[in-house]
Amino acid sequence: MDVGEILLLASLILVAYSVYAFYAGVKKRSADLLQNGEKAVFLYFLAILFSSLLLLSHFLSKDFSYEYVFYNSDSKLSLLLTVSAFWAGKEGSLLLWALFIATVNLFVLSDKKDSLTAYTLAISGLFLLLINILLLTTSNPFTRIPAQPEGVGLNPLLRTLEMVIHPPIVFAAYAGLLIPFAMAVSGYALGKDWEERAMKYLLPSWILLGLGIFVGGWWAYRTLGWGGFWGWDPVENSSMLPWLTSTLVFHTFYLQKRAKGSWIISANYYLLVLTFILVVFAAFVTRSGIVSSVHAFGEGPEGVIFLLVIVISAVVSIYVKRNGFRGGDELRISINRETSILVYLLVILMLFLGVLIGTLIPAFGFELGRKYYESIMFPVEIILFALFGLCIRLKWGWDGELREKFLIPSIIFLIASLSSFALSRSILASLAAGLFAFSLLNYLVAFYTGKMRFLRRYGAYVVHIGVMFLFIGSIGVWSLSNTQQFALSPGETATIDGYELKFVKLNAREDGEKFSIFAEIQIYENGKLIGTLKPEMREYKIIRQDRVVSSVEIMSFPLHDLYVSINGISSDLKKVGIEVHINRLANFVWLGMGLIVLGGLYSYLYVSRRGLSE
């Protein structure tokens, strides 16, 4: 048995014991059992950490006698990419997930030691136990093969800085989202308050998942060469779904402060349960092979196991909360902030269901393309634009100052809509532009009139503004962009949206890990040379078949990107095929994503210092 497998077996035994010790310690009120459970958490963390370091050492030493190292690395790989190869496949990514769960459990243990913590660690430990079993069976990263002189190599699409940091960020978020679920179930099982403690872990996990989605979109835009940042791929969708439901929790938690003891408390619980189930669903989609995805690991028995986890989690969660919804004060439905937030919740739930259906329907033989998702997203974005602008200025209860508050923003809406329609001739774009201006103005007014005691809200304000920029940017990219393909010989030119692209020549270069052929393309505007782009086709010196990729070149302007990629080269090297995109408002997408992350960080730092109740 390999040393790594011994460490994983030790961690499995320790995790199993910790689950027993925490559960039995609370039931029997045994301080000794609870202390032993705490020790087991430290020990299984060390066992998983050392097994991870051992696997990393096999990558760094280029030990191709390990099957996982053989298929995900090669001798020419740089140090940084060799480290990232650790999580390039299903075995390493599963071990990384286990390491993050063990790490988060340490944070939970150090935060507060009581029965809620014990049950939380028992539930978290059960899921970690499952992952540990998979690491020793179907996804063993320490499986040995006869020693090989060279590795197959890392997938060329993963040889970017974005793919170095994207998987760790996402798996750290997934590990963090396990804790609010475990606390919610534990809280109801024990009859203890759990909401505020769960929120402490939900917020940083939500930030990390949003950042991971941001980095993934940036990678797709700059690496895949198809001109977009979100392809509605099942694996992409499965990462967005728990982000949506965890976003809803913040709003239901906010509403809870206005309606103590109402059904909204139960909504918090079920949304946290759903969020964890969706995290497991993401693993199911990635590892089951039930749907086709460029990001998936293919078919495997893990899919069935994760499906069972989904079913068991749902059944247990409903049983624990079997008393149903609580009664209490209900929200007042009127023209007020409560109503606007409730409408927001319903709209996001509709979006969630639409994306979930679109993700699953290919498993039944139906293919849903980009138009399906756009038919959902565009009305959702329009409605949310309006809600953001209204909610920020409305009061709790009846608000009778509507004319005073919204007269000027409404005039701005009309001016922006008409101006946009004159430029774009697009009803959708003009409506979106008007509502964007309407909502942004209302948020700026809220910032200007805010008082120091409302500083905790500013993080949410920045997040909402970021969402608005993301929406207007996505509408620009999806509905206003122009795409054309050209086949050019040296000296020939092509024209798109006022830009003239002149193909000068093909060049080639070679380094230690790849051959590159790049096209030198001069960009002219109004007859003036404004720059040169050099998109590439790269062939890596590796054994694997998928070793040829294209590299994108982008000339960025404030309101659009000129985006060029190579889609083919003639056999005589005398003609090149290029795909050119004029992506409208692409920078608004990145600005919006950045503001969402920054607003989340501000909120987290504020809450960390002053607590949720202030």
Write the layout of secondary structure elements.
Blueprint: H1 3-28, H2 31-60, H3 67-72, H4 79-84, H5 90-111, H6 115-136, H7 161-190, H8 195-223, H9 234-256, H10 263-288, H11 302-320, H12 337-360, H13 370-391, H14 402-424, H15 427-449, H16 458-479, E1 482-488, E2 493-496, E3 499-510, E4 514-525, E5 528-533, E6 536-540, E7 548-551, E8 553-556, E9 560-569, E10 576-584, H17 586-610
Antiparallel strand pairs: 1-10, 2-3, 3-4, 4-5, 4-6, 6-7, 8-9, 9-10
Helix pairs in contact: 1-2, 1-6, 2-5, 5-6, 5-7, 6-7, 7-8, 7-10, 8-9, 8-17, 9-10, 9-12, 10-11, 12-13, 13-15, 13-16, 14-15, 15-16, 16-17
What does this entry look like structurally?
- With 614 residues, the chain is of the alpha+beta class.
- 62% of the residues lie in helices and 12% in strands.
- The protein is built from 17 helices and ten strands.
- Strands 2, 3, 4, 5, 6 and 7 form a six-stranded antiparallel beta sheet that branches. Strands 1-10-9-8 form a four-stranded antiparallel beta sheet, with helices on one face.
- The longest helix is centred in the first third of the chain and has 30 residues.
- The protein starts with a helix and ends with a helix.
